[in-house]
Design brief:
Blueprint: H1 4-19, H2 25-37, H3 40-61, H4 63-72, E1 75-76, E2 79-80, H5 93-98, H6 100-103, E3 113-117, E4 127-131, H7 132-148, E5 157-161, H8 174-182, E6 185-189, H9 195-208, E7 212-216, H10 217-230, E8 239-243, H11 249-259, E9 263-269, E10 273-278, E11 285-287, E12 292-297, E13 309-316, E14 327-334, E15 348-349, E16 351-355, E17 359-361, E18 367-369, H12 371-374, E19 383-392, E20 395-402, H13 408-422, E21 427-432, E22 447-449, H14 450-457
Parallel strand pairs: 5-6, 5-7, 7-8, 8-9, 19-22, 20-21
Antiparallel strand pairs: 1-2, 3-4, 9-10, 10-11, 11-15, 12-13, 13-14, 14-16, 17-18, 19-20
Helix pairs in contact: 2-7, 3-4, 10-11
Length: about 450
């Protein structure tokens, strides 16, 4: 008997009544169910209504957008011309950093506003502001997605995470403990994954028998590698939801085979919340179109053709405190060759292929996807963890955590494979470390191009 579910639903209703948010969680959740049960045309119309409302608000209440929307002709007095939407210049992290006061709505005091920061995996963290309406909308999306995977409020879940403010102190505060108890959640620290901790995590998971595990991609992959290496038995896990990293097919199949589970990829960020996720069919990531309007564009800013790969640009529909319109989030995605709305009236991404900085850039301008480099290490048992960094056009660093230092022949083999795609003049430096640390956001970067980062900030 899941006694938590009715209690949590009642608490959500009380919270909605207390705040009176326009997108109260329970009301927005019901609205999401209506979106997913309707047809494609209805979804498009509803999304256009939310986009129009956001643009009108931004023109009236945000100095930065007032000028921009009038100059581009997207908003003329009280008329919104969505056909001109792509004339709006992209919002970048550098523009955000220099225009925080003008991006803020002058009516934000009517909302419960809080400050947040970007993860900083591609540079210095950027401050931005969100509110209770945005938070309620995000939580409704999480409830919907859990429901779509068969997990209801109060069902047992494990969170292999590291973003809680005080988790590194060895314990969490009373408020967090109470919340985890009510939500039937076991929290495991992704920042402390020593062999001893991994053994403890497997034991706790076996006893707890969760319906699902939410985890950083790297953290659950490292746990699976430990389970295989030690030959430990683990109880089947119905679902593993991975986020905060790039999930490639080899990693997915390894985690599924080792942990007796199904892996579902989820994509989002601190700035814009959950954006897209795989459903049970694992056929691409379904976009949460009630929350964001998502574009995938090429280097010239044009929509990529079907089957193409480009940069993700997001307009957040639920944060009126600090609107983010055509925001270059710094990630890359592939769009499907064909749209299929037979099962669900929502667009999909075929895959999220990584950060812009996951692509290494050669001198001739050609791009090499970071996944090429990850495949160089998958079947080398001496590697505990690896990271490949493009320092310059002519130099690549390989950082390694090892069980035992490899033979020189293996270094030479890896060096040649890197030079095969980056050029024979490319220097490859190996560094052996006790620990490769995650970024400040907790995300672990397998590959990273400093050349890509510099170009992104230009």
């Amino acid at each position: 008997m899941n006694w938590r579910r009715p209690l949590l639903n009642q608490l959500l209703n009380l919270k909605d009544a207390m705040y009176g948010a326009p997108f109260a969680t329970t009301r927005e959740y019901r609205e999401i169910l209506n979106w997913t049960a309707s047809d494609r045309l209805a979804v498009q119309n509803r999304q256009e209504e939310r986009l129009t409302s956001l643009l009108l608000h931004s023109q009236r209440h945000c100095p930065y957008y007032r000028r921009l929307l009038e100059e581009t002709g997207v908003v003329d007095r009280s008329t919104v011309r969505l056909e001109e939407f792509q004339k709006i210049p992209f919002l970048t992290k550098e523009i955000m950093r220099g225009n925080i006061p003008d991006l803020l709505s002058d009516e934000r005091r009517s909302r419960k506003v809080y400050r947040n920061t970007s993860g900083g995996s591609t540079g210095e963290p950027i401050p931005f502001y969100q509110d209770n309406v945005y938070k309620a909308s995000n939580w409704a999306t999480v409830l919907y997605y859990n429901h779509a995977l068969g997990k209801e409020l109060g069902d047992r879940e494990v969170k292999l995470w590291g973003s809680e403010r005080d988790i590194l102190q060895g314990n969490i505060g009373f408020k967090s403990q109470l919340k985890n108890f009510l939500y039937n959640r076991l929290l495991l620290n992704a920042f402390r994954m020593t062999p001893e901790m991994c053994r403890s995590y497997v034991d706790q998971i076996n006893r707890f028998r969760p319906v699902s595990i939410w985890s950083y991609v790297d953290s659950i992959y490292q746990l699976a590698r430990y389970v295989e290496r030690e030959g430990i038995n683990i109880e089947p896990i119905p679902a593993v939801i991975t986020t905060a990293g790039t999930l490639d097919n080899e990693m997915r199949h390894f985690i599924e085979r080792t942990l007796l589970t199904r892996v579902y990829n989820q994509y989002g960020s601190r700035e814009v919340g959950p954006v897209a996720a795989e459903r049970l069919d694992q056929k691409g990531l379904v976009l949460f179109e009630w929350s964001q309007f998502v574009e995938v564009v090429d280097s010239a800013g044009n929509p990529v053709p079907p089957g193409g790969t480009g940069e993700i640009v997001i307009t957040l529909l639920s944060n009126y405190t600090m609107p983010l319109i055509r925001y270059r989030i710094g990630d890359m995605a592939m769009v499907p060759l064909e749209e299929d709305f037979s099962e669900l009236p929502l667009r999909r991404l075929s895959s999220v292929t990584g950060r812009v900085t996951d692509y290494f850039i050669r001198k001739d301008g050609a791009l090499v996807h970071g996944e090429y480099f990850t495949h160089l290490f998958y079947h080398r048992n001496w590697v505990r963890r690896f990271q490949v960094v493009q320092e310059t056009f002519d130099r690549v660093s390989v950082n390694l955590e090892c069980e035992n230092r490899p033979e020189k022949d293996e270094e030479i083999e890896i060096e040649k494979m890197i030079q095969k795609v980056m050029g024979h003049e490319c220097r490859v430096d190996f560094e052996y470390l006790d620990q490769i640390k995650p970024s400040s956001s907790g995300k672990y970067l397998y590959t990273f191009s400093k050349v890509g980062r510099e170009q992104d900030h230009d």
